[in-house]
Design a protein that fits this description.
The chain has helices at about 5-10, 15-35, 45-60, 100-110, 150-160, 175-180, 215-225, 255-265, 280-305, 310-320, 325-345, 375-380, 385-390, 420-430; strands spanning about 40, 70-75, 115-120, 130, 135, 140, 140-145, 165-170, 185-190, 210-215, 240-245, 270-275, 350-355, 365-370, 375, 395-400, 410. The protein is an alpha+beta fold. It folds into two domains: about 5-225, Amidase signature (AS) domain (Amidase signature (AS) enzymes), CATH 3.90.1300.10; about 240-420, Amidase signature (AS) enzymes (Alpha-Beta Complex). The strands form four sheets. The protein has an eleven-stranded mixed beta sheet with strand order 1-3-2-8-10-9-16-17-13-11-12, sandwiched between helices. Strand 14 (about 365-370) and strand 15 form a beta hairpin. The radius of gyration is 20 Å and the shape is globular.
């Protein structure tokens, strides 16, 4: 179920696209009752497109680098003919989308096939994919645990082997958190690198969209399709590496600390860098998210408050009340923190940090231990992702090669250096230090 392998087999005529799609549809139908990662199957469209791809191959043509590869779509991207729900009943009466979102169109043009829309926190406001309308998404590796969010359905779908590629969004960690908890690759690209056209917004100044994949090689292939450009090959020998300390070394679980320490030993990482005012940066991300999200929804809240998920509604209402001077100060801090991030990269090429505190929290007790206290997971799974969000730098979540439940590391690069991130991820995968955790048959 690696995209690179599937596309090669389909393009060579060794496997039909129809057989791939049929297998994946059957897998979702058989297994998703226990996971709830998928909200809508696009079966008719997927089979029709697969037949078209097989016809191109049979005639001697090339349907594209992602020929026959199925992918999942977070339910905030437009899919032609469907209402874009953004995980909510509030939008149920909106007209169906007249065309696919731009990133969906780019994947289709590369030969990939939309298979399903995936579950999410309502309006992408949360880290748990616990949705009052569409239910809770369970972790494929232990269904008693959270998958993370808000792109939990997309991450869980890759981990469950429904599709090797999926689209998500990341405002404060909504790709990085579920990628870590589900054991797959996830990329928050440089702010504004990937177009958000055709995706429902949450926080316009922080929103990014991006991919989950089953391998680092798949990430390269998918980013080529999403950007329309061929990612440069980068020599990773000699890259200067450092681990983020301070905030990013506090409250880390024993399992995560052992995994990160092992990774750093294997890579001979001896340097530690501490970013200044990380707590303030996280607070600023909270304030910007709340104020912009609340402002976006204020008119709908006045008319349709009862249709919102109560947990989301209350946070949006609170955000709408944030005074303008407070939001202004948060944006001012954002600019300052971005400058400090640039300074950190004067002495290093890549930074390493935990993606989350540790393993996926249990559904029956959705808490994390922070500062010696049990705090709600839904609000705090972004402890290590939210501060980095503020700067808008690209971050690759790497599924570490560990025993037990999945654990992920954030690898951070300067803006525009996705080429460096993915090359480094490929090197980690080749060395055995990183591997996705995909359920087998």
């Amino acid at each position: 179920m690696r995209a690179t392998e599937l596309a090669r087999a389909v393009r060579a005529g060794e496997r039909s696209a129809v057989s791939v799609i049929t297998f994946c549809l059957d897998r979702v139908i058989a297994r998703d009752g226990a996971l709830n990662a998928v909200t809508r199957l696009l079966a008719e469209r997927a089979i029709d497109q697969a037949r078209h791809i097989d016809a191109i191959v049979a005639s001697g043509g090339d349907p594209g680098p992602l020929a026959g590869v199925p992918f999942g779509i977070k339910d905030l991207f437009d899919v032609e003919g469907l209402v874009t729900t953004a995980g909510s009943h509030v939008l149920a009466d909106e007209p169906p989308a007249t065309q696919d979102a731009l990133l969906v169109r780019r994947l289709v043009a590369a030969g990939a096939i939309p298979l399903a829309t995936t579950n999410m926190d309502e309006f992408a406001y949360g880290f748990a994919t616990d949705n009052a309308h569409y239910g809770l998404t369970h972790n494929p590796h232990d269904t008693t645990r959270l998958a993370g969010g808000s792109s939990g359905g997309s991450a869980a779908g890759v981990a469950a082997g429904y599709f090797p590629l999926s689209l998500g969004s990341d405002t404060n960690g909504s790709i990085r958190v579920p990628a870590s908890l589900c054991g797959v690759w996830g990329l928050r690209a440089t702010q504004n690198l990937l177009p958000t056209e055709g995706s429902f917004p949450f926080v316009a100044s922080l929103d990014t969209v991006g991919p989950f994949t089953a391998s680092a090689g798949d990430m390269r292939l998918m980013m080529d399709a999403l950007t329309g450009q061929t990612l440069a090959r980068v020599d990773t020998d000699g890259l200067r590496l450092a681990r983020l300390g301070g905030w990013f070394a506090t409250d880390v679980s024993p399992e995560m600390e052992a995994a990160l320490a092992g990774l750093c030993r294997a890579l001979n990482v001896g340097r530690e860098i501490q970013l200044p005012e990380v707590a303030a940066a996280r607070a600023a991300a909270f304030v910007i998210s709340a104020s912009e999200g609340g402002g976006l929804h204020l008119d709908r809240l006045r008319r349709q408050a009862a249709l919102y998920d109560p947990a989301v509604r209350d946070r949006l209402l609170a955000g709408a009340l944030v005074p303008a001077p407070v939001a202004f100060r948060a944006h001012k801090l954002r600019r300052w923190f971005r400058d400090r991030m640039h300074e950190a990269f004067e002495a290093t090429d890549l930074l390493i940090a935990p993606a989350v505190v540790g393993e996926a929290p249990r559904i029956e007790a959705p808490v994390l231990m922070i500062g010696g206290k049990a705090v709600p997971a839904r609000a705090n799974l972004g402890l290590y992702t939210q501060p980095l969000t503020l700067a808008g730098f690209p971050v690759l979540t790497v599924p570490l090669a560990v025993e037990g439940l999945p654990l992920g590391a954030q690898i951070i690069a300067p803006p525009g250096r996705e080429d460096r991130l993915i090359a480094f991820g490929e090197a980690l995968e080749l060395s055995g230090l990183a591997r996705a955790r995909i359920l087998e048959d």
